[in-house]
Specification:
Blueprint: H1 10-19, E1 27-31, H2 37-45, E2 50-55, H3 60-63, E3 70-74, E4 86-91, E5 96-97, E6 107-109, H4 114-126, E7 127-138, H5 143-152, E8 155-164, E9 169-177
Parallel strand pairs: 1-2, 1-4, 2-3, 4-7, 5-6
Antiparallel strand pairs: 7-9, 8-9
Helix pairs in contact: 1-2
């Protein structure tokens, strides 16, 4: 099992580029911060009153690199937070299709979406009712599983950014709860 943080790469960069365009206020959570680059970018924009990052791996190595205003928690996804805590939640989950999880930084399980859907479920439990979730997936992933999950949970999802690499395409999705019509 991998114990090194996820290294910033094309996928993290794509997610980061979208995150700095987000309008927001209130609270922001990044699940699985890796080296913390995207948290730093969000902090530089100063659009959020509270910025929090989580990771399963010890975060002491990146603590010195990040502004003190950013809160860090070593936890599994968003499991340590109360319901309806965050306005925006972002993550670049492990998404490489794999039969079993050997590298927790890249292996996404069956269809590449097993782990991302666990991230999404965890994020929904702490998302405010009008909040937004931003997640990254690959063309190698079974996007139909994401679509089914969103339909079942009454979520709206749309592709908001993409990048073509020579071996895959990367997609950033914006997910919100569907508004109920009275």
């Amino acid at each position: 099992m991998s114990i090194l943080p996820y290294m910033y790469s094309e996928d993290s960069e794509l997610l980061g580029k979208y995150l700095i365009t987000l309008e927001g206020s209130g609270s922001f959570l990044e699940i699985g911060v890796g080296g913390g680059s995207n948290l730093s970018s969000v902090d530089r924009g100063r659009r959020f009153e509270r910025i929090v990052g989580t990771d399963l791996l010890p975060l002491s190595s990146i603590r010195q690199e990040l502004p003190r205003s950013i809160e860090l928690a070593v936890t599994d996804r968003a499991s340590c937070f109360r319901a309806s805590t965050f306005d925006v939640i972002a993550f670049n989950p492990p998404y490489v299709p794999s039969g079993k999880i050997e590298d927790i930084t890249t292996d996404g399980g069956l269809g590449g979406v097993e782990v991302p859907l666990q991230f999404l479920s965890s994020a929904l439990s702490v998302l405010k009712p009008e909040g937004k979730i931003v997640m990254l997936l690959s063309s190698d992933d079974t996007i139909a599983d994401l679509q089914q999950f969103c339909e079942k949970e009454s979520l709206h999802f749309s592709k908001v950014a993409e990048s073509e690499l020579f071996f895959e395409s990367l997609f950033v999705y914006l997910i919100t709860r569907e508004k109920k019509v009275d």
